[in-house]
Amino acid sequence: MSRKDFSGYTKDKATEKMLEKSDNEKIQTIWDRYEEQSPQCGFGSLGVCCKICLQGPCRIDPFDENLSEGTCGADADTIVARNLIRQIAAGTASHSGHAKHLAHILLKSGKGEYKDYPIKDSEKLKNVASRLGIETGGKEDSEIAIEVGRAALGEFSEKEEANLWAATTVTEGMAKKLTELGVVPEGIDSIVSEIMHRTHYGNDSEVSNLIMGGVKCALADYAGCHMATDISDILFGTPKPVKTEANLGVLKESAVNIAVHGHNPALSDIMVQVASELEDEAKSVGASEGINIVGICCTGNEVLMRHGIPSATHSVSQEMAIVTGALEAVVTDYQCVLPSLTKIADCYHTKIITTMPTSKIKGATHMEIDEENAKDCAKDIIKESIKAYKNRNPEKTNIPDDKTTAYAGFSTEAIVDALSKVNSEDPLKPLIDNIAEGNIQGVCLFAGCNNVKIKQDENYITMAKELAKNNILVLATGCGGGAFARHGLLTPEATNEYAGEGLKNVLTAVGEAAGLGGPLPLVLHVGSCVDNSRAVDIAVALANKLGVDLNQLPVVASAPESTTEKAISIGTWAVTGGLPTHVEVVPPILGSKEVVKLLTQTSKELFGGYFIAEPDPLKASQLLYDEIKERRRGLNLE
Ligand code: BF8
């Protein structure tokens, strides 16, 4: 028996049990590696280490005035700003790389070259095309798909006119303001490249100029996120409410358990589509329950939203899915996949199957995605996973019995559809009326990951309960959505238990009108990280309806356990879009007073949004609630 107490690492019981199992089996986890790395480098934590040129690395010592400049003369402010915007560029490249992959698939789908990717949502295709100014009348879907695909790919290079995907999806006021401030990117890849240029040795060292470059890049991240959501819906269907289950208890004793992990539905969705064809093959090796596909991280969110595929786990606890001993394969695409997975898999029978040319892992089996024959490729991967089943060792298998019911699938369209059951003429009116009357005080979007530095899920759960008690409508994306799923907050029961009276009445009225037989869940899961764009769409619709701008709405955001560079990009565009945005884990910026001031104060004057750093989840909830009340006063709603 493990003698270590893991309750401080995670709020999730299933993860805690698997941490005990890892300890017993002497398997090193992300928490162990973090402890071994501690204390972490103070210079790196403050962001004052520069290794951009070969005369470095240099570091600034805040306590030694003789070490206040690097070899080239860059001071702490410049070094922090350069490091930060390079992180934003990496996040942008990741989200938009995902979108670019989908844009290629859409184009080839339209050309008839990718037969396994038909247009699933023709209405959305036409809506997106119209938004981009593409004529749709009298055209076949395939023709429109080609034009939308080309328009999407055109967004990546530098354009004469800033006409980004993003510009057509925000309020007119915001588009105008961002144009005036000169932060609308000319192209997605071009701004990523520009960031690398301006941060090169001997270039931009003026701090506010660097940060405005970062803001411009973050807006390209937003464009990439929105594009990824739009094209995923067109190719795989726009999500509708689904009921499913979450946590490690979704793994089945007698099934071939396959986890899809990463971000892009390009392969995971196809695997879900073809899995039933291989049920007999799975049964022939003794898996009487057939094939059980489960999700990890955001590709898990994609198939959860569209197919109700259960979520096994997310983010910091991804290794624990393998430690159950019941996972035949982890099939990865890209982003947020730990390189440690292959070492842990070596202790069991689990196969780690990588599928993307840009994301291989040492020790994994590589079976590259072939979009021209996507279904065959997906079947080959499933067959490979089935082979592993007979090697499962029952003595090393322990599936925790923890699982919860979860409702997800709340795309913008699904939310508007539910509201239209209350008022078919004017679907947003019930929401606006209830905000005006104070039954709903405001909206908070929870986004982001889990982070090994924070007790897993603690901040999400504490903050959502606190905000909902104060009648704040809670939306969630990414691994945050997973946290709420694991703890039962994506359910009508949670609404009855935790929502304030006003919020409960509204969620009940909408849920019943929409035929759900009860309230909407306490937290509405709107999708993966790129689907933060869905939350923007909802906020933009509300702002347009009220005739105000985003930075006046009682809408706030929180990334209380964020980890990745992508999360930094998202946080930056949320702030630029006017949202007060809470973070718990502060990116490496504390070495520069000037950068901190720009992000927490000056941004409020420029954009209306700003970062709030607060480690205590209850205090953070209060700060967000105060901001909502201040904005309500601004709209004369108090
Ligand atoms: O894509 S999977 S760890 S980065 S939250 Fe965070 Fe989770 Fe990654 Fe956003 Ni989604």
How is the largest sheet built, in terms of strand order? 6-5-4-7-8-9
Instruction: Return Rg in Å.
Output: 24 Å
Average pLDDT:
97
Q: What is the CATH architecture term of the largest domain?
A: 3-Layer(aba) Sandwich
Instruction: State the share of residues found in helices, binned by percent.
Output: 40-55%
**Ligand catalogue:** FE(4)-NI(1)-S(5) CLUSTER with Oxygen
Mass-distribution shape: globular
The main pleated sheet reads as: 6 strands, parallel
SS-based structural class? alpha/beta
CATH class of the largest domain: Alpha Beta
Poorly predicted runs:
none
Oligomer: single chain
Per the CATH scheme, the topology name of the largest domain is Rossmann fold
Question: Ends: how far apart?
Answer: 56 Å
Describe the protein.
The chain is an alpha/beta fold and 638 residues long. It folds into three domains: 76-236, Substrate Binding Domain Of Dnak, Chain:A, Domain 2; 248-396, Rossmann fold (3-Layer(aba) Sandwich), CATH 3.40.50; 408-634, Rossmann fold (3-Layer(aba) Sandwich), CATH 3.40.50. The protein is 48% helix and 10% strand. α12 (297-307) links the parallel β5 and β6. α4 (76-111) packs antiparallel against α6 and α8 (188-198) runs antiparallel to α9. FE(4)-NI(1)-S(5) CLUSTER with Oxygen binds at residues 263, 297-298, 314-315, 336, 448-449, 478-479, 528-529, 563-564, 566-567.
Summarize the model shown.
By secondary structure, this protein is of the alpha/beta class.
Secondary structure: elements and pairs:
Elements: H1 13-24, H2 30-37, H3 42-46, E1 49-50, E2 58-59, H4 76-111, H5 122-131, H6 141-154, H7 172-180, H8 188-198, H9 207-236, E3 242-246, E4 256-261, H10 265-274, H11 279-284, E5 291-296, H12 297-307, E6 311-313, H13 318-323, E7 329-332, H14 341-345, E8 351-354, E9 365-366, H15 374-389, E10 404-408, H16 412-420, H17 429-437, E11 442-446, H18 458-469, E12 472-477, H19 478-486, H20 492-498, H21 501-513, E13 523-527, H22 532-546, E14 555-559, H23 565-576, E15 581-583, H24 593-607, E16 611-613, H25 617-634
Parallel strand pairs: 4-5, 4-7, 5-6, 7-8, 8-9, 11-12, 11-14, 12-13, 14-15, 15-16
Antiparallel strand pairs: 1-2, 3-10
FE(4)-NI(1)-S(5) CLUSTER with Oxygen binds next to helix 12, helix 19 and helix 23.
